[in-house]
């Protein structure tokens, strides 16, 4: 069955992998990006090659007005199709201890990773409610949420713990409408996030430490997300799935 697939943070990493692997003939794939237009275009081209119709939307999800505009532009989605949200957009900052966590850093981290994710879900649910097709949501969390990451990325970890809590609450709220809400918690995944966090060599140093002995790929996380959004997971909601090699 054709669907609308709305992916935030689709210009690289897990979001781009979801676009490449999730698109199918007849689908409408709506790809959000922040600044990396070239990456979003590449993901769009792969989804287009799979037979999907594409809409690209630029927005800063840390700005509520931009999220509202994202929702309005995503309203081009056909209300007769189920809408599935991959709530993936997020940021990380440089390694830091408590003394280094400035108000500006915390404000931006939580504006994007918490407030932005909640407001994106709000817009997506409003679109789902326009018709009778419903839909589903997968929030992208992190195993950092259960590790704390003291002295490293404690603010990022806290933001992802909030996403875990939000996932559970939203699943409870929407279950009666047939809208399933789940999350994935990626572990050490081979994406650009490590370089963005100031540690481009992180995987080379600790990628062997999960029990499976290697880091994961963006595609492996995307497959888990797409399964949670599929009919094969029709009895799964309020769940948080670790995709972390056993760590």
TrEMBL record:
Alphabetically, the GO molecular function entries are: oxidoreductase activity
Tell me the SMART domains matching this sequence. PKS_KR
Q: Which residues form the Ketoreductase domain?
A: 3-191
Q: Where is the signal peptide?
A: none
Recite the UniProt keywords alphabetically: Oxidoreductase
SUPFAM superfamilies to which the protein is assigned, alphabetical = NAD(P)-binding Rossmann-fold domains
Database matches in Pfam families: adh_short_C2 (PF13561)
Q: Which InterPro entries match?
A: KR_dom (IPR057326), NAD(P)-bd_dom_sf (IPR036291), SDR_fam (IPR002347)
Domain of life of the organism in this record?
A: Bacteria
Coiled coil ranges (UniProt) are none
Q: Which family does it belong to?
A: Belongs to the short-chain dehydrogenases/reductases (SDR) family.
This protein's name: Glucose 1-dehydrogenase
Organism in which the protein naturally occurs: Pseudooceanicola nitratireducens
Q: What is the lineage of its organism?
A: Bacteria, Pseudomonadati, Pseudomonadota, Alphaproteobacteria, Rhodobacterales
């Amino acid at each position: 069955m054709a669907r609308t697939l709305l992916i935030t943070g689709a210009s690289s990493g897990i979001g781009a992998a979801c676009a490449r692997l999730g698109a199918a003939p007849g689908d409408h794939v709506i790809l959000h990006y922040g600044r990396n237009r070239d990456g979003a275009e590449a993901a769009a081209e792969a989804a287009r090659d799979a037979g999907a119709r594409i809409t690209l939307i630029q927005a800063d999800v840390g700005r509520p007005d931009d999220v509202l505009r994202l929702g309005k532009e995503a309203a081009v989605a056909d209300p007769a199709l189920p809408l599935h949200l991959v709530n993936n957009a997020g940021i990380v900052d440089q390694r830091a201890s408590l003394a280094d966590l400035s108000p500006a850093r915390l404000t931006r981290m939580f504006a994007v990773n918490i407030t932005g994710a909640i407001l994106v879900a709000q817009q997506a649910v409003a679109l789902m409610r326009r018709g009778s097709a419903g839909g589903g949501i997968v929030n992208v969390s992190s195993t950092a949420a259960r590790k704390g990451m003291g002295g490293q990325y404690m603010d990022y970890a806290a933001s992802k713990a909030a996403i875990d809590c939000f996932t559970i609450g939203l699943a409870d709220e929407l279950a009666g409408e047939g809208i399933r809400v789940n999350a994935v918690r990626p572990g050490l995944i081979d994406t650009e996030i490590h370089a963005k966090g100031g540690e481009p060599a992180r995987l080379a140093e600790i990628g062997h430490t999960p029990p499976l002995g290697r880091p994961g790929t963006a595609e492996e996380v995307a497959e888990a997300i797409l399964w949670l959004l599929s009919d094969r997971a029709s009895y799964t909601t309020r769940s948080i799935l670790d995709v972390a090699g056993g760590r």
